[in-house]
From TrEMBL:
It comes from Bifidobacterium ruminantium. GO terms for molecular function: lysozyme activity. This is Glycosyl hydrolase family 25. The keyword Hydrolase applies. Belongs to the glycosyl hydrolase 25 family. GO terms for biological process: carbohydrate catabolic process; cell wall macromolecule catabolic process; peptidoglycan catabolic process. PANTHER family: LYSOZYME (PTHR34135:SF2).
Length: 422
């Protein structure tokens, strides 16, 4: 995603435009759940989002502390007008991470809740004729990425996705990967191309989206960065919405909101307790961090509701046909264990495959009324046999990382056809 293309490279790409148009490289997005789209910057024409076939368009909003895209508003308006999903991204200069996050959030306030938020993390900030002219001073510093995404989430209640080249995925630490979807760049070659249904190495790092070309031509327009998102429009909207209320269908939210501490009232504490039982607040240290000063009071209510006191397991009664909204890191088997709604096979999911769920989806339990709840998460469930072209993200959605840990997989999280995953 080289956003400051050197002039000589632009001239070279213009020279191949005629050839590309002649051989009709543009390919319409495939009629399947996965989405095809592009990402663009300020130097590209404002009409591109309305002139090409795409499921989504991701627009550069800011870079560092002072640069902003003059075409930003028009590019997004053209994407909206033609029914495309949208994303907005910040190109990191590697300065003060908190200040850069604030610059981005201030600029994209009107898109929070309706467009995916993204960080573009690259080694080179600007290119010259002979390569990189200005380098990112914090390249290799995972803490910078974590600080930036945390600040964005604190202000918007949305976890941004993180763009990085495949060879540098290691810079996105485990803490960030458990919360933020990866958007990975790797190109098979520099040949002109249209949309590809199975990009080279797509999903190999467990990413939710792969950028596989910077030499794409769609409907005669290009060169363009081409991407494949391993999910449908609903999954896209859920990532854009994050933990916000009232935006699950893409409703515009006009300004970012800062998370407020929960009120210390019995009603609110009971609501929090119900959410803990439903798994909304995770386990262990994550639950402690998220409940803050309410932790002890809420857990006392949870134990009372479950009738478990300090015991490790409690038998509870559930109502059939319960629903649950999928969160980052979830798997159906983990949800079943955490909520006590077993077996995992009694859950119904939109894809029809309990091993394929996405953040924000509502899944439904149709099992018996008696179940056993455990305070910690243990993973059980059926196995999945890997097919050609599948990745951990494609199989498990946002629960890919939990699946990797469960199966003893390590970076680059390579899986093979015929392999059995549990």
């Amino acid at each position: 995603m080289r956003k400051h293309k050197p002039p000589w490279l632009k001239r070279f790409r213009l020279a191949v435009t005629g050839v590309v148009m002649a051989i009709t490289m543009a390919v319409a997005p495939a009629a399947m759940a996965d989405l095809n789209g592009v990402d663009i910057s300020g130097y590209q024409s404002a009409d591109i989002p309305s002139a090409i076939s795409a499921d989504f368009v991701i627009v550069k909003a800011t870079q560092g502390l002072y640069w902003s895209n003059n075409n930003y508003a028009t590019q997004l308006a053209n994407a909206d007008r033609t029914g495309k999903e949208t994303g907005v991204y910040h190109f990191a200069n590697g300065g003060n991470a908190t200040a850069e996050a604030d610059t981005f959030v201030n600029a994209v306030a009107g898109r929070v809740g309706r467009s995916i938020l993204a960080l573009d993390w690259e080694q080179c900030l600007a290119y010259g004729r002979y390569g990189c002219a200005t380098a990112n001073p914090n390249w290799g510093n995972s803490a910078w990425i974590q600080t930036w995404v945390t600040r964005v989430h604190d202000r918007t209640q949305v976890w941004p996705i993180v763009y990085v080249q495949r060879s540098a995925v290691w810079q996105v630490n485990t803490w960030v990967r458990q919360r933020c979807m990866l958007w990975v760049a790797q190109y098979a070659n520099s040949q002109p191309t249209g949309y590809q249904p199975s990009p080279w190495n797509g999903g190999a790092s467990g990413e939710g989206m792969t950028q596989y070309a910077s030499t794409g031509y769609i409907n005669g327009r290009g060169p363009l960065d081409l991407n494949r998102f391993y999910g449908d429009r609903t999954a896209w909207k859920k990532i854009a919405c994050g933990e916000r209320a009232g935006c699950s269908t893409g409703t515009v939210t006009t300004a970012p909101q800062v998370n407020k501490p929960a009120e210390q009232t019995p009603t609110d504490l009971n609501v929090l307790a119900d959410k803990v039982i439903h798994g909304d607040y995770g386990n262990g240290q994550e639950r402690i961090n998220r409940l803050g000063g309410n932790y002890n009071a809420v857990m006392a209510i949870v134990n009372s509701k479950l009738g478990g006191g300090s015991s490790t397991q409690t038998t509870v009664t559930r109502t059939p046909s319960r629903t649950y909204v999928v969160r980052s890191g979830d798997t159906v088997s983990a949800i079943a264990e955490r909520t006590g709604l077993k077996p995992a096979s009694a859950w119904r999911v939109p894809s029809g495959n309990i091993n394929r769920i996405y953040v924000g989806q509502t899944i439904t339990y149709y099992g018996s009324v008696s179940a056993t709840a455990a305070p910690s998460t243990t993973y059980y469930g059926s196995t999945h046999v890997v097919s050609a072209g599948e990745s951990l993200w494609k199989i498990y959605g946002s629960g890919w990382y939990a699946a990797a840990q469960r199966n003893g997989l390590r970076p680059p999280y390579t899986i093979y056809p015929g392999q059995r995953l549990r």
